[in-house]
Amino acid sequence: MLKAHIIKKRRELSVDVSLELERGQSLGLFGASGAGKSTVLACIAGIEEPDDGFVKLDHLQLFPPSLPLHRRPLGYLTQEPGLFPHLSVSENINFGITKETAATAEQKQWIKTLRDRLQLDPLWSAPASLISGGQARRVSLARMLARKPPLVLLDEPFAGLDRQLVRELIDDLVFWAQTIGFSMIAVDHHAEVLKRLCPQRVIVVEQGTVAQQGTWDELYGSPATPSLRSLLAPI
After folding, report:
1. What is the span of the domain harbouring residue 43?
2. Are residues 128 and 37 in the same domain?
3. Whole-model pTM above 0.90?
4. CATH number reported for the structural domain that contains residue 155 in this entry
5. What distance in Å separates the CA atoms of residue 25 and residue 202, rounded to the nearest whole number?
6. pLDDT along the chain (235 residues), means of 10
7. Rounded to whole angstroms, how far apart are CA atoms 59 and 211?
8. What is the C-alpha to C-alpha distance for residues 123 and 15, in angstroms, rounded to an integer?
9. 132 assigned to some structural domain
10. Which residues pair with 206 in a beta bridge?
């Protein structure tokens, strides 16, 4: 489904990472803060442009040349909810969906499913500027999933949230990955969080390059570098 080779040169770090992902699979990008994981995701999403390499999603070439963000069939969730404060929760979730699509029975039912599963009914008409940080994360998750993207990118979207809410959001994402069948790449520097989100495969990124890849059992059983051992401690 996805094939990518991201080359991005920065003043403090040069990123050079290749990855492949089949439809319906999940992949974790693991490593310390500043290792280059978020850069990889940002280049796939189109927030940043690679200096070299390629990004291909199915038969669609995302780079090169750089395909505009609105034409990339993917969802991208970061630490910042990025909601429009002047719009209601409902308007944020439906933002960017055409009137024709929003009017279909299938889309209405899907929005209702998101609304119920994420417990957004009490917030539905509230301005986004008045909801809490945890509520905003749930709204941003619903907005991302409203279009049923075939590929979901998660860049530490649970940072700063309490453990119970993190567990609930992970359960929701795993449930929908199985229900919708989207592929998922997630970034986190907490191994236990990433393992629950992406149990199938993991790539370890250190200093901008791939230090190790394989299953979680392989990673836990034989870390490729000494620095990985402290990162594998449970949170």
Report:
1. 1-73+150-235
2. no
3. yes
4. 3.40.50.300
5. 11
6. 95 93 94 92 96 96 94 92 94 92 94 93 95 92 93 91 89 89 92 91 94 93 84 69
7. 29
8. 41
9. yes
10. 209
